[in-house]
Amino acid sequence: MSSNLKNGQWRVASYPEAEVSRDNFELVYEDVPALEAGGILVRTTALVITPPLRMSIGTGGITGNVLPIGEVMRANGQGVVVATDNPNFAEGDVVTGPLGWQEYVSFGGDQPIPLEKTEARAGLPIEANLHIMGGSGVTAYFGLYDVAKPRIGDVVLVSAAVGTVGALVCQLAKLSGCKVIGIAGNDKKCTWLMDELGIDGAINYKSEDVAARVKELCPKGVDIYFDNVGGEVLDIALDNIAHGARIVLCGATSQYEGDANWYGPSNYFNLVYKEATMQGFYIYSYANRFPEAYQRYGELIAAGKLLYNQDELKGIDTVPDALIRVLSGDNFGTQIVSFGDR
């Protein structure tokens, strides 16, 4: 490794007053960190950028994990071990975990290394471990099958339906014999949902009256609402639930830019009249069953019954743009930033 090689890092420069901008981050270059005793040095090859990262730079919120000014911005990613003093890792190992917005990261040996060695699953590109064969994939799988418990004939409404989780939920629900309606942010996405995923209806929340369209497409009510956005769309879903409905709380993309001013459902008491349930879930409670989901996805992809999208930007300079894209809905599929070899 060249002695004059530098490590690009995006650090938190300020907290947004409203929407995130590039000015909220600062790109700095410093020496590549040294290998610590008992540790490993990792070169980042790709990051996955998701809407909840916005809460890392909020001025409030419910997570309590706001990063201080000057800290490296967080994100999960994939990398290659380039130096090691740890018997559990060898040079060339591909690892996945909390790498942050930086090109190199050193993990010391005095603490457990929060990375797992990864290999390609089901013959897919190894980057798939960052989404369908990773956290997003298992979120969709267990959120639908274990929390929502779909039945043949159920009407399933999915928000952020072209996102990684939403698109998988749409397809799994169709395979379960359900009627599926997706909500997305432009006509191109709605067309893709209908033509490529084969769902039964799509709503453009930016140009259509979502409440009117939900009533039109779900005249007998919604049996399952898989919520990825929260806010007013959650209210609309609650207005249209069928008896015994199941609402799955997965994400709240519409609320992440609001910091501590979260919009709560104003009509939650409809759950009582409809004898419905609204439930969140923590995906790592299912960690021992992750292989079940990966195996099923592999089978479905091999059979041509499951699609996934990956939206890729390239280079360390584009990382803030990737976060802005996912918060505005401009991405089409899982937002990845890949780093070239150096």
Structure explained in plain terms:
This protein is α/β, with parallel strands linked by helices. It has two domains: 6-130 and 309-338, Medium-chain alcohol dehydrogenases, catalytic domain (Quinone Oxidoreductase, Chain A, domain 1), CATH 3.90.180.10; 135-285 and 295-299, NAD(P)-binding Rossmann-like Domain (Rossmann fold, 3-Layer(aba) Sandwich), CATH 3.40.50. Helices cover 23% and strands 25% of the residues. It contains eight helices and 15 strands. The protein has helices spanning 135-148, 164-175, 187-195, 210-217, 231-239, 270-273, 290-302, 319-328; strands at 6-12, 25-31, 40-49, 76-84, 94-98, 104-107, 116-117, 155-158, 179-184, 201-204, 222-227, 241-249, 277-280, 310-314, 334-338. The strands form three sheets. Strands 3, 4, 5, 6, 7, 14 and 15 form a seven-stranded mixed sheet that branches. Helix 1 (135-148) packs across helix 2 and helix 1 crosses helix 7. It is globular, with a radius of gyration of 21 Å.
List the helices and strands and how they pair.
Blueprint: E1 6-12, E2 25-31, E3 40-49, E4 76-84, E5 94-98, E6 104-107, E7 116-117, H1 135-148, E8 155-158, H2 164-175, E9 179-184, H3 187-195, E10 201-204, H4 210-217, E11 222-227, H5 231-239, E12 241-249, H6 270-273, E13 277-280, H7 290-302, E14 310-314, H8 319-328, E15 334-338
Parallel strand pairs: 8-9, 8-11, 9-10, 11-12, 12-13, 14-15
Antiparallel strand pairs: 1-2, 3-4, 3-6, 3-15, 4-5, 5-7
Helix pairs in contact: 1-2, 1-7
CATH homologous superfamily assignment of the largest domain: NAD(P)-binding Rossmann-like Domain
Average pLDDT confidence is 92
Class from helix and strand fractions: alpha/beta
Overall helicity: 10-25%
Runs with pLDDT <50, length 5+? none
Please tally the helical runs, counting DSSP H or I stretches of 4 or more residues.
Answer: 8
What's the β-strand tally? 15
Question: What is the radius of gyration?
Answer: 21 Å
Basic shape: globular
Order of secondary-structure elements: EEEEEEEHEHEHEHEHEHEHEHE
